[in-house]
Amino acid sequence: MTDHRPWRGVLVATALPLNDDLSVNYDTYAEHCAWLVDNGCDGVVPNGSLGEYQVLTPEERARVVETAVAAIGGQRVMPGVAAYGSAESRRWAEQAGEAGCRAVMLLPPNAYRADERSVLAHYAEVAKTGLPVVAYNNPIDTKVDLVPELLARLHGEGYIRAVKEFSGDVRRAYRIAELAPELDLLIGADDVLLELAVACAKGWVAGYPNALPQASVELYHAAVDGDLDTARSLYRRLHPLLRWDSRVEFVQAIKLSMDLVGRHGGPCRPPRMPLLPEQEAAVRAATEKAVAAGLS
Predict the structure, then answer these.
(1) How far is residue 18's CA from residue 107's CA, in Å, rounded to a whole number?
(2) Structural domains in the chain, sorted by start
(3) 136 catalytic, yes or no?
(4) Averaged confidence pLDDT in the chain
């Protein structure tokens, strides 16, 4: 990882360990961040969707960032700063900077279906903090699609340096590279990792390394280094789990896999509900099969 582009490499969108009473277990979270780095990951992204930021209090959300920084250093922490208003997103970016972080990740406005002018103004406001901004394109959840042409404009204006691409449309990688060759493409969905790595992605904002970091890191590096025999073999074995990252129940699934491999996943806060029995059985079987194959 390089300091001037801390989003490169494998950055884990961290799941947030909760106690049985649904309070945040900060000590376990700190240990988890350190464990991820010790197992080959380059950094963490706290307060993303996987970290359940939407149901945290402001005090909890700030402390999560501070906990990660204290555990592994600010150069390895890229918090999500999504919020309903641009002013609030900017305040979260400022908090990240004060905590020692070197970059932030930002969704477009998600309180409504924002038009292009609103998207530009939103990113311009957060960019005023001076921290590099990584855009997060998740049109499935936000209903705002950062299409390649809009990303190129955001980059051209100096508002963003990279994009976490979660649309699932791998064809966009090549269009983004044509329109904005200096904009770093980050893999945003675990189940298109190989396709986007081949398309010259510079990093992976990842979900399943929360449970299987070593195998995930090996997969990423094999893919970006062009060792396709190794990458394809790992991808096939991991894909029954990786595809959960693109499903509604991704938080519950990844936390269950964490529990099964001896980590602390724990419960989720409402309104997220536990997995249905058939979903739990599928995640359990896929996780146990991966572990039995020696993946960790």
Answers:
(1) 24
(2) 9-293 (3.20.20.70)
(3) yes
(4) 97
